[in-house]
Give the backbone structure.
Amino acid sequence: MDSTDLPASEGPLQFGRREAGQVYEDRPCAYGVLVRSDGRIAIVRITRPEITYYDLPGGAIDPGEDEAAALVREFGEETGLKVGVGRLLARAGQYMLMKDGRPVNNRSGLYVATLIGEDAALKVEEDHALVWLSPDDALRHLRHDSHAWAVAAWMRLQAVG
């Protein structure tokens, strides 16, 4: 589960736009594409008073964690699902503003995730809800271009192997 999973010609991708005058803090993250047997993808719907948006499950890497541990933890916190970590699809940056307005560059490992099961003991974040979308709907609804790119990369893997 490292960059050796990627072809040698590929490196980190960068998405989003840098705003002039902003200093972007690097924020290491991991996100996953989990596909159910009916072809639908696990997406997190985040509902806040001012906006609702859709992300791939995942998030920031805590101190002492690697990408795989962060992905498993974040998936549980956001969806209530236990997952395994599969193939690395890409490494990508995404310029964005955090909800507190802080500019960050999410430096993410984007992985294929595998479903282990549900865990009723996991406490899902209050403003997060698991939704299952078709790949096409996921591409249209995902907030971050890096997340949509990961779904498209997964779709290509299915088509060409």
About this structure: Residues 145-160 form the longest helix (16 residues). The chain has one domain: 3-155.
